Amino acid sequence: MLPTLPQTVLYAPPVIFLMGPTASGKSALALELARHFPMEIVSVDSAQVYRGMDIGTAKPDARTLAAAPHHLIDLIDPTESYSAARFRKDALACCADIVAHGKVPLLAGGTMLYFNALTRGLSDLPEADAATRAQLDAEAAVLGWPALHAQLAKVDALTAARLKPADSQRIQRALEVFRLSGKPLSELTGKRQAELPYCVLKIALLPGDRAALHRRIAARFEDMLRLGLVDEVRALRSRFHLDADMPSMRCVGYRQVWEFLEGRPNEADMILRATAATRQLAKRQLTWLRAMDGIETFDCLRCDVADAVVARVRTFLAS
Question: What pLDDT is recorded for position 7?
């Protein structure tokens, strides 16, 4: 049980971050922690927010959801977008509600941008606006993105200088911010939100043997194919008006299956592409983790990793 503190003591409620690269065992360990402690799990996964994208995101199944409450999954359709800013707002609301019910938020996942948004805050930028983006897309179709890059240089030279003229996604966002706020992106990015009002234990599951993690990644994608990932993507294409450039279909695994359904690679090549892309994702996740302050690392490949993490969390919650 968590300690009861006197009302006169200033107390920052505890929160656990459980981070790591893909296939490091975060989901299974999160369930183990929820079995030992009064916790609710908050997904920190930019792909699990999409409805219908279950197999390729390793989304918890019905039995898992019955065993432990999960939050921030199945929030939007694959045709929609979900930002780090929205995640931060949603995650903070979840944490506040979990703490209010006397439990500990366990934020588990591999989207390091989201963890970074929580720990460092985000710039106070306007949210995405569909009408503005549509207008920018229409202008780009006529003028080309280099011309819009030149427009950006006139209103936000600092941002334009670090972007390539063909970087459509970032040029669009910078111009969108300027048109919505009247201020350049480079000016707004320096203003960040307040720090987290919690005492955070940051746990990272890291592989002692990178080759072993790669074997896990390959095996997991093979499992996803056996579970019906290709049929899942085929059904999504039938159910929703999707295209390959949408954020949902750019997720690792889904992009490669999309290309396979379009007739480009054969199945063997799709598997190679998907596993290679997942290894690259894991590499980026590890790079984020190496740059993060205050993390405690555990070898995800050790057979006693669950016992070690449970012991550390027990000490943290009792302190």
Answer: 43
Strands of the 70-71 sheet, one edge to the other: 70-71, 39-44, 104-109, 14-19, 199-206, 295-299
pTM for the predicted model, two decimal places: 0.81
**Tens digit of each residue's pLDDT (9 = 90 or more) over 177-229:** 999 999 898 888 765 556 789 999 999 999 999 999 999 999 999 999 999 99
* Whether the predicted pLDDT of 4 surpasses 50: no
DSSP 213-235: HHHHHHHHHHHHHHHTHHHHHHH
Q: Which two tokens stand for residue 127?
A: 């949210």
Secondary-structure percent of the chain, ordered helix, strand, coil, rounded to 5: 55, 10, 35
Tens-digit pLDDT profile for residues 253-311? 999 999 999 999 899 999 999 999 999 999 999 999 999 999 999 999 999 999 999 99
| Token duo for residue 280 | 């690259």
Give the span between the Cα atoms of 145 and 166, in whole angstroms. 6
**Extents of the domains making up the chain:** 14-122+193-318, 130-188
- What 3-state class would DSSP assign to 101? coil
Is the sign of the CA dihedral 297, 301, 304, 309 positive or negative? positive
Q: Domain 130-188 carries which CATH code?
A: 1.10.20.140
Closest among 283, 270, 238, 317 to 20, alpha carbons compared: 283
Q: What is the mean pLDDT of the chain?
A: 92
From the candidate CATH numbers 3.30.200.20, 3.40.50.300, 1.10.8.10, 3.40.50.620, the one assigned to the domain spanning 14-122+193-318: 3.40.50.300
End-to-end CA distance of the chain: 12
Q: Residue 160, SS3?
A: helix
177-191 pLDDT, tens digit each: 999 999 898 888 765
* Joined tokens for residue 72: 């921030």
- Chain centre distance of CA 263: 29
Q: What is the 8-class DSSP label of residue 309? A: H
